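All the exercises in this workshop are built on plain-text protein records. There is nothing in a record beyond a sequence line and a structure line. A learned vocabulary of local backbone shapes supplies the integers on the structure line. The question running through the whole workshop is how a given chain folds. Here is such a record, shown just as it appears in the course material:

***
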Amino acid sequence: MLFAVLFLTSVLVSKSPAHNNSEPQKKEFSGGDFTLKSAAGPLSLQDLRGSVVLIFFGYTACPTVCPISLATIANVYTRMSPTELQGTRALFISLDPERDNLELLERYTKYFHPNIIGLTDEISALKNVAEKYGVKFKKTLVPDSTLGYVISHSSDIILVDRDGVLRMTIPHDTETDHLLKQLKLLL
């Protein structure tokens, strides 16, 4: 009986959307169009047709995964030609609309690279978009922290092709070279 419980637990954990492997995985979600708020006004995925889009869900107070992932995306961008760069956009979708207003998101994303656009909206809209892309997140209270709470969230970088079709997810801890290679395959 113990063996069965351990086996089922390992299978469930290995198939969890928040579980990261070192290789891109096929997920059971389809992505799709959405419209969220940016500092420049409403932005939909449809508006970016013709560009390869990288999507990352997180929040500005995230201590490690979010800044590392955005730095990886920025490193990829610095290694692209101007023509390649014109064909891409990255979206940082904040899962913390309580703290991440549009001005803060604009400053935060532009710190990493001008091609990264910060998006947010009401929590119901964010949940809808996250569900489309298989992103799980949860607000957890941390009473002894000055932040008061953290957002636990899936951490894959999502790649969407020029036609708006979700093509792959890549673990946040992937090497810059691998992400660059995958991105260039879609250009």
